[in-house]
What does this fold into?
Amino acid sequence: MPTGASTEASNRSWIEDLEYPGSLTAAAAGVTALTCSVVAYLALKYLEPTSPAAANTLYKLKLYRKYFSYFIFSKDKSYDATPPVELGREKIRKKIVFCRHGESEWNLVFNKGFGPSFLVRLSNALIREIMLIPTRDSIFIDSSLSDEGLAQVAELRKFVSSPNAPVFLREPNSSTLVTSNLRRAIETGSIAFQNRIAKSSEQMRLLSSLQEMSRNVDASALAEAGKIPDLTVVLANIDSKAFDPVKVYDATGNNGNKPLKSNGLIRMKEFCDWSLHKQADNVIVVAGGHSLWFRNFFRAYLPERTDYIGKNKKIVNCGVVSFDLVEDESGCVMIDPNSLNELYGGYSGVQAKKGA
It folds into this structure.
């Protein structure tokens, strides 16, 4: 049984909670926030069938939820790729061209250093991201090209359309055009190769196998399987008013966002198999791809003894490199090191090659 003193102390503590209700206020705030979140979610679900803004908001929330799981559990770069030693008798040879995308909005925020200007860039990006919540656009998820990236792509367009460019870049139907399923890659390929596309009925294929190797949210795809992502940037930078996305893009190779069980090696092998066995053209142009994917491809498929800059350095934004991919009769796949050719831009930290 409590003594009178302990009862008095208990009553005093309870009275003090009422007079200084910090813990009660915190608990009430938490309950209120949770209630508001549930009500907001139920309201969005109710509006989803008739409101594109509500549907887009729910889709973004789902993507962010998946992203946080992916960020924690991803093993995208956790694989054992043993570089080839040598090839046997050659069976198949295809020319592959890597074109890296232009600078993205994500690059603009996070790749320009972390001095005082970083907080300004980040704050600006966060405000824009909030404003874009009810749309299928985003600054961070599947990041688009920045203004600087668009300027880089404009220069790449001049090169691939010039007489100095190889025929397999400038001439329609001279090669197969493919890109990653991420927007900055699609934007780069579409804008840079628009002169060629306008002259023909050829399509650009979107391939999930080319999706970037990273756990960052900018490497998460916005478009669902079989669909084309937001093309606001593309449509604003295409000269031809006859540009029809339905005719230009083949999205059958877009399997949606990379699953948690996937990793970079699986996707690289898928790309090799598609290029060598499922595509008739002898030249495959990756009109929009990614730096880490390209660098890891060189590490996986160049002979281990080959000392090549692409194993350690990134291709610069809008840089172009070509090589021959070879498979022997045993099924071993390797890059022919003698076929490597820097066509435009080159590698980071190395003087750029203009090419035009």
In short: The radius of gyration is 26 Å. The longest strand covers residues 333-344. Confidence is low (pLDDT under 50) at residues 12-20. The chain has 13 helices and seven strands.
